Automatic annotation (TrEMBL):
Pfam family, one: Hist_deacetyl
Annotated family: Belongs to the histone deacetylase family.
Histone deacetylase domain span: 37-272
SUPFAM superfamilies: Arginase/deacetylase
Tagged with keyword Hydrolase: yes
CDD domains reported in the protein's UniProt record: HDAC_classIV
Cleavable signal peptide: none
Protein name, as recorded: Histone deacetylase
KW Hydrolase (keyword) present: yes
Gene3D superfamilies noted in UniProt: Histone deacetylase domain
UniProt entry keywords in alphabetical sequence: Hydrolase
Length: 295
């Protein structure tokens, strides 16, 4: 199976920076025997403009983001950061094309759900899912979409862009006390109490998927398989175990069966990035099992 990665466009960060840049390369090393990892292409600026405000794109392109904007983004601006961001979106577009032709696709990146129409924040420069959906619509490949956002942080950027869209349903399951502290409502938000464990989480997720799927039918689904609901995550506050996260992935993929599904990585901030990568590898294994069942 082909999957996509932008890991080679690795930005330099100051020592001690919280963004786990190393996880992307470690993941590619771990999975290269299981799948063929292709390099994500950068999307054209016109595709980004299907979703993002021109003025924001101009500031990003020219390196004119304000100090406040860069602080909100949490990453220092560089040409490489912009190139990497465009390729991260490109991986999700490529994975969506595979999903539409073969049933499922995966980007070993993306899930940048805090990027909105007119803001880039929370390590998210562009909203890969929203841009991909907009592009699929332009090409006449899909119209109605479901977003299942299981990153532990609420998907505020996706909610801003797709919440008012009658042909998109956004579901976000997240820690109630996590970033972002000012929410933009999704179609369905589940605010989970700190310390929520596997059983409660899986039961809530199953119920939420009932409601989300009732809003169908959908031409395409996006699954943000964040690794940050893990009990050891630094930014998480939830208490899922690694086997619990594997069950989460299996549950989502089973419930989305019959809908072309695009799986993206989203967050993961384990003190040792190898723990985040373990969770990402398990997600890929669930994707491979789903792909085998389809063929
Ligand atoms: Zn997150």
């Amino acid at each position: 199976m082909d999957v996509w990665s932008h890991a080679r466009w690795r930005i330099e960060l100051p020592p001690g920076h919280k963004f786990p840049i190393s996880k992307y390369g470690l993941l590619v090393e771990r999975v290269s025997g299981l799948v063929s990892v292709l390099e994500s292409e950068p999307v054209p600026w016109e595709w980004l403009a299907l979703v993002h405000e021109e003025a924001l794109l101009e500031r990003i392109r020219l390196g004119q983001m304000s100090i406040r904007e860069q602080r909100g983004l949490g990453l220092p601006w560089s040409e490489l950061l912009v190139e990497r961001g465009r390729r991260s979106v490109g991986g999700t577009v490529a994975a969506s094309r595979r999903a539409l032709s073969l049933g499922i696709g995966m980007n070993l990146g993306g899930g940048t759900h805090h990027a909105g129409r007119d803001f880039a924040r929370g390590y998210c420069l562009f909203n890969d899912v929203a841009v991909t959906l907009a592009r699929l619509r332009v090409e006449g490949l899909a119209q109605r979409a479901l977003v299942v956002d299981c990153d532990v942080h609420q998907g505020d950027g996706t909610a801003q862009i797709l919440g008012p869209d009658p042909d998109a349903f956004t579901l976000s399951l997240h820690g109630a006390r996590n970033y972002p502290f000012q929410r933009i409502p999704s179609d369905l938000d589940l605010d989970l109490p700190s310390g929520t464990g596997d059983d409660e989480y899986l039961a809530e997720l199953d119920r939420a998927l009932d409601e989300a799927l009732d809003a169908g039918p959908f031409d395409v689904a996006f699954f943000l398989a964040g690794a940050d609901p893990w009990e050891g995550d630094r930014l998480g506050r939830l208490s899922l175990t690694k086997p619990g996260l594997r069950l989460r992935d299996e549950l989502v993929l089973a419930r989305l069966r019959g809908i072309p599904t695009v799986v993206v990585l989203a967050g993961g901030y384990a003190p040792d990035p190898r723990d985040t990568v373990d969770i990402n590898v398990a997600t890929l294994e669930s994707v491979l099992a789903a792909a085998r069942a389809l063929s």
